[in-house]
């Protein structure tokens, strides 16, 4: 089994794009992304954000399973819900209007748009908002961000019967129903 240090060394030495890699499957790695977005190795939190970001850069989803993929090997990891959590956001003025920018637990910023769409999906019997991130991966809105967005939607004059909508530049999305 690949160790955490060996995986880190492989990744730091690579320069080719992830999409060009076609490594063999090498088994499971004791790495888990918890529902709260925390990355755990053998049950212990990975405290180094640069290391987590490095692993996230090679995270892929294939047939509802998650893998870390290097040019030499592909290892399966466990993800409780989705790999990322949206924990912050802000409005960014643009020439086309205000853009809603979501910030992940790893510090990545995503402009809510057709490229990073919002959808409602059931998880543990609750309808929750998710954002498409990249490579088929998703992020879930934290409860605080979701409630803040609902407050923004309630201030919007463009509500449809009992539905809560938000706009980000030219992209309109449903947050839920009253």
UniProtKB/TrEMBL annotation:
Annotated signal sequence is: none
Q: Which Gene3D superfamilies match?
A: duf1285 like domain, duf1285 protein
Query: DUF1285 domain spans which residues?
Result: 16-82, 83-175
Q: Which InterPro entries match?
A: DUF1285 (IPR010707), DUF1285_beta_roll_sf (IPR023361), DUF1285_C (IPR048342), DUF1285_N (IPR048341)
Q: What is this protein called?
A: DUF1285 domain-containing protein
């Amino acid at each position: 089994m690949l160790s955490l240090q060996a995986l880190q060394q492989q990744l730091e030495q690579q320069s080719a794009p992830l999409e060009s890699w076609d490594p063999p499957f090498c088994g499971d790695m004791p790495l888990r992304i918890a529902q709260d977005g925390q990355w755990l190795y053998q049950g212990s939190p990975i405290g180094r954000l640069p290391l987590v970001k490095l692993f996230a850069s090679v995270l892929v989803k294939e047939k509802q399973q998650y893998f870390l993929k290097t040019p030499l090997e592909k290892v399966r990891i466990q993800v409780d819900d989705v790999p990322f959590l949206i924990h912050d956001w802000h409005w960014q003025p643009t020439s086309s209007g205000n853009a809603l920018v979501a910030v992940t637990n790893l510090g990545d910023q995503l402009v809510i748009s057709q490229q990073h769409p919002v959808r409602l999906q059931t998880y543990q019997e609750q309808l929750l908002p998710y954002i498409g991130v990249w490579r088929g991966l998703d992020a879930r809105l934290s409860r605080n961000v979701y409630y803040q967005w609902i407050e923004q939607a309630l201030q919007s004059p463009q509500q449809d019967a009992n539905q809560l909508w938000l706009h980000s530049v030219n992209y309109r999305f449903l947050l839920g129903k009253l």
